[in-house]
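User: You have something folded?
Assistant:
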Amino acid sequence: MLRVLLCFGIFIVATSAFAQPNIEKTIVNQTLERFHQAAAEANYVRYFDLFAEQAVFLGTDGNERWTKEAFKQFVMPHFSKGNGWLYTKIQRNISLVKDKDIAFFDELLFNKNYGQCRGTGILIKENNTWKILQYNLSIPVPNEISEQIVGLIQKVS
């Protein structure tokens, strides 16, 4: 009987050790879903509650690097008019840093104005809540047209 209890105890500990990263990935995924939903609904408070205080948002333009406070100022006029933005997840990969409260991700998104986009970033766990520390939105350029795009960018730079 003691052996059965010991084996059961080892099974429970091993199972919970494997389950914890999956639970954390699920929570990070839900955080990112709430992030995109708040943006689509132009919900200023819910959107920025998902950012860490030291957060940085990198936009599609090379000049778009905003601290959380600067990004709030950029977003406020849009959200206050009810103008949000919808990015629909196509695919998402989440990785956790072992023994740390840090997650990083990459996601393919669809937006009606920009088409396929890529979001990448880092989340940190603060007070048992996952917060976005950095978000980087980019537009992937197919290799077949990258030289043309680089040429166009050079003309406007």
About this structure: The chain has a mean pLDDT of 90. The chain is about 45% helix and 35% strand. The beta strands are 51-58, 65-67, 88-96, 102-111, 115-126, 129-138.
